[in-house]
Amino acid sequence: MRLTRLVLFLTLVVSAHICAAATDTKTTMDPTKLDSSNDPILATANADLRSPAPTSQVQLALGYVGGNLLENDEWAQGPLVSIRYAPIDIHENVKWDFGGEINKDNIFGLFVGRRWYVEEDEFRPYARVAAGSFFDSHDQLGNLVEIKRWRARASLGIGDRLNFEAGLGIAVTGPDFFAQLGYNFNF
Predict the structure, then answer these.
(1) Which residues are paired to 88 by β-bridges?
(2) What is the pTM of this model?
(3) I need a surface site. Which of 63, 81, 121, 183 has the fewest CB within 10 A?
(4) Do residues 99 and 126 lie in contact, with contact meaning Cβ atoms separated by under 8 Å?
(5) How do the domains of the chain map onto residue ranges?
(6) pLDDT tens digits for range 170-182
C-alpha cells in the first residue's frame, strides 16, 4: 500500500511541478520557401573536376621464403621479390589478387588469392587464402600443371599502403613459410 501511495505521489505531485516549469510551445508552419542555392559548407564539388576513385592496385614486396618448393627434396630458403595485381571493389577493398614471386634460387611461383578484411579497423588487418604453383626457371612451363607443384597458402596481413603479411603453405612436396613487407600502388 505504501508503495502505491509513493508512486501516486511522485506521479501526481512531483511531476506536475516539473511539467509546469516547461514553457508553452506552439507549432506553426513556415510558409516561406527554402533557398535552393548551395550551402557554402556543404557545397557539392564539380563532378568533372574530381579525380576518379582507384580501380586497381599493384603491390611490390620484399620478403623471405623457405620450404620444399619443388619435388626435389631440397629446402630452398632466402629472400623473395613479389608482385601482385588486384582489382579494387566499390568499397575500396581488394578481394581477389593475382601475383608472382621469385626467390634467390630462381624458383618462380604464380598464385591467385582471396582476402577477407576486418571491417572498420584503421590498421586494415586481413586473412588471405591462395592457391598456386612453383616451377624452376630452368624447367619448362609445362611443369606448372604437375600436381606435385600445386600449393595452398594461408596468411595474415596488416596495413593499407605499407603492409606486412606472413603465412604458411602446404603441398604434396611439403610445407613452406613466407613473410613479406610490401607497398601498394593504387591507380
Answers:
(1) 94
(2) 0.70
(3) 121
(4) no
(5) 60-186
(6) 988 889 999 999 9
